[in-house]
Amino acid sequence: MTAPDIRGFAPDRFAAMRRAFAENLPSELGVRFTVVERGEVVADLMGGFADRACTRPFGPQTLTPVFSVTKALAAVMIARLVDAGRLAYDQPVAEVWPAFGQAGKETVTVGQALSHQAGLSGLPDEMDPAEWFDWEAICSRLAAMTPLWPPGTRSGYHPVTFGYLAGEIFRRVDGRTLGRALRDDIAAPAGLDLWIGLPDSEHGRVAEMERPKSLPRFGEMNPAVKAAFLTKWASPGGRGSAEWRRVEIPSANGHATAEALALFMGALASGGAVNGGDVLSGGTIAQMSEPQIAGRDLVLPFDVQWGAGVLRNPPNLFYGPSAGAFGHSGWGGACALADPERGVGMAYVMTRQSAELLGDPRALRLIAAAYEGL
After folding, report:
1. Could you list the residue range(s) of the whole structural domain that residue 159 is in?
2. How many C-beta neighbours within 10 Å does residue 278 have?
3. pLDDT in tens, 16-26
4. Which one of 42, 60, 85, 155 counts the least CB within 10 Å of its CB?
């Protein structure tokens, strides 16, 4: 089947973005890129297919797995508790989750847990990958675990365990699961196609992913990297794609459209509201995105600056030219950003995954081109 035309819209000021999208398309399977400025969708392009057989055009209703971009959604849900005075970033996790305060984790704060400083980048002891589908079992493992490095001294990216840490903190304060609260409080009222835990009724809209053909470059090998990525049980497995979509893992299995992600991030960039509903106050947005730690990450082969669950733009500038921008990237290339300096949110989703851990060249090209029109 011949590839469908590029669909969506991009006004003349985004001519460079249209060109970059067209140049990227031969290397894509299905793709969408959306730009929001001051709460309004100002450019939105999509093309390719939602399935590997190339029979379903990638359309406005296509949902895409966004993997670790989910962490930005989780970060905001925790920040809403901070906004409401029900939690504080400098509060020890053990105050809300008493069992967590063992094996050297007594003083680990909420902010440290969200900025990958807790020393729990993965689970080093052998287990069945299907155990990730058992929330209580994984939380018990994390509570009992001795950190892989002294907490608070370094960051080491927590690719999957982040979701259980953030989710359990949220559940113990709010009473609901984080994914349920996202739907109840933000996504459904604002009409945003954002999900952590996808009901069966939506599964038919999900795009099929084409996995990367090579492994990422992890850099220096150490126990934190091995636990995070390189054991046979480093990520959930053994239950099939339908169960993966249903379960709530607030670090890894979000599903979204690029438009919904861009509107969500755009709210964080321009006052904290989307479609008439409040997401977060300006003061808490600044708190969430201020540096918790900076330097060479123990797991990712990059110098990074982590906020409380979001990746700050310096020093790599993966999210455009603004030093105040922040966002998150996901396995295979997806990313979403908020730029409070420009009042802009952007999101890139795709179905052909690359092996880049951060800074997929396809997304970088589109983000740079979009800024030419702002």
Report:
1. 7-372
2. 16
3. 999 999 999 99
4. 85
Q: Are the C-beta atoms of 299 and 224 separated by less than 8 Å? A: yes
How many Cα atoms within 13 Å fall on the side-chain side of residue 372?
Answer: 16
Within a domain: 1? no
Torsion 78-315-268-11 (CA) sign: negative
Full strand arrangement of the beta sheet holding 194-196: 64-67, 254-256, 194-196
Q: Is residue 265 part of a domain?
A: yes
Maximum separation of any 2 CA atoms in the chain, in Å: 59
99-135 per-position pLDDT tens digit: 999 999 999 999 999 999 999 999 999 999 999 999 9
**CATH number, domain with residue 355:** 3.40.710.10
Q: In sequence order, which residues have a C-beta less than 8 Å from that of residue 302 and are 6 or more positions away?
A: 296, 316, 357, 358
Q: Which two tokens stand for residue 307?
A: 């906020």
